[in-house]
Amino acid sequence: MPTITAARPAAYAFDLHTTALLVIDMQRDFLEPGGFGESLGNDVGQLRRTIGPLTALLAGARAAGLTVLHTREGHLPDLSDCPPAKLERGAPSRRIGDPGPNGRILIRGEYGHDIVDELAPLPGEPVIDKPGKGAFYATGLDELLAERNVRSLLVTGVTTEVCVHTTVREANDRGYECLVLADCVGSYFPEFQRVGLDMIAAQGGIFGWVADSMDVLAVLPTTPVLQPSS
Length: 230
Ligand code: TIU
Hints:
Elements: E1 3-4, E2 12-13, E3 19-24, H1 28-31, H2 36-39, H3 51-64, E4 67-73, H4 84-88, E5 99-100, E6 103-104, E7 127-130, H5 141-147, E8 152-158, H6 160-173, E9 177-186, H7 190-205, E10 209-211, H8 213-217
Parallel strand pairs: 3-4, 3-8, 4-7, 8-9, 9-10
Antiparallel strand pairs: 1-2, 5-6
Bound molecules: tricarbonodiimidic diamide (TIU).
């Protein structure tokens, strides 16, 4: 089994037949000006450093034949799946559903809701639309992973302390092992990036493991393994 000896808090061994790459919410709404992230007062440029390493990791995972899944946070056009507390919270410059330069903020089907061009899903790669921060809440992700016999997740995306953390906690409670790739997850807040990763690996790996994408690329095969479902 490929093993990442440099992982924190301890080595991470994963079976290529039961491991998937999960790319969380790499959407224009979080990474580009005029979207949800900027409406909350964030410097969206903080997240762009994840795109290069994630592009390379995606290529490596695809070459190795791993299942690749993408998620998008967003809501139905009538906002029926958006809790009032989420809609009304804070004082953003634009609220969810308001018009913006990339379409209505965080609404499914809008340009801003979709994944950035550099990381566009390939045909056949599942894209899970989720109304919450966690990728398991109100989605079919658990069933989809079970169908493909996935037990281990390589976790990437944005933001580290919000959707990545929520998803890793949900996954951990469901029995999945999660390796979070530090250079492929991003936060608007440098201190949250550092502490968010420390929280995952602390206490013997209370929620999972942390490593860098280079460590994964170093152990991935360059030709596809056969996934059980294929
Ligand atoms: N605001 C923030 O940091 N994140 C989110 O609202 N969603 C995700 O993390 N995807």
